[in-house]
Amino acid sequence: MPTTLGTLDQRLREKEMRATVARLGRKYLVVSGKGGVGKTTLAVNLAWLKAREGKRVGLLDVDLHGPDLVGALYLEDSKLGADERGLLVPHKVRDDVSLWTLSVQQLLDRGQEAVMWRGPRKMRAIIQFIGQTAWPELDYFFVDSPPGTGDETLTVVNNIPDIRALVVSTGQSMSVSDVAKALDCLKTCGTEVAGLVDNLSSLICPECGRETPLYGLGGTQELAASLGLECLASLPMDPAAAMAADRLRAPLAEAAPQSALAVKLKALASRL
Q1: What is the pTM of this model?
Q2: What's the rounded Cα separation, in Å, for the pair 265 and 251?
């Protein structure tokens, strides 16, 4: 059967994708079946901590309908450009930190502009964000994903076969149930799970520092154990650290490095 122009173009795109993926270093998909469990905060702080170790780090936001990465890094005015080949150029966060970001938010004219895309458009955008972008040579590449097991997650794992999943849950039974579905999706796709993260496991009082469990103990850990996986960390909710981050306009691991949450995030980052 003769090679058509369409087939040739597809092969070239696939070759370009493989070449780009090979430059991305260790790759982690921060994922959950549940919304509101802190995926973006985790992805941003892990990426920041690895960059502060002197690593070259990429951070991609594939939550196309609710992109929060830009806000979490206080990059509201950042925009993406293109190079001479027409490839997107990720935004470098600061001159003294080797961290590059890409979010659909950085392509919008208005901060509150809605992205109303259906499946094929979303898949094409994510393929462009991964394989048709001028990512530099990286040591680490983190992908912040939306909740669920839809187009965004599937497009990432299909195009980055060696990506590993960091699965985020709270101990709440509803969250654990939804995360179990996400883990089933990852298993079906053949995606390796690096481990689970039990987020918002407790509340640290900003006045006295007392730590109080929020959802009871053991939900995330029990799910991990039942599937032969490891719970890598239990992370508290730390309002004082969050307020410091907003005040200093920096990730909380940078703004409140001595906080209990930052210490646990650093321990988790050291394991990646």
Answers
A1: 0.93
A2: 11
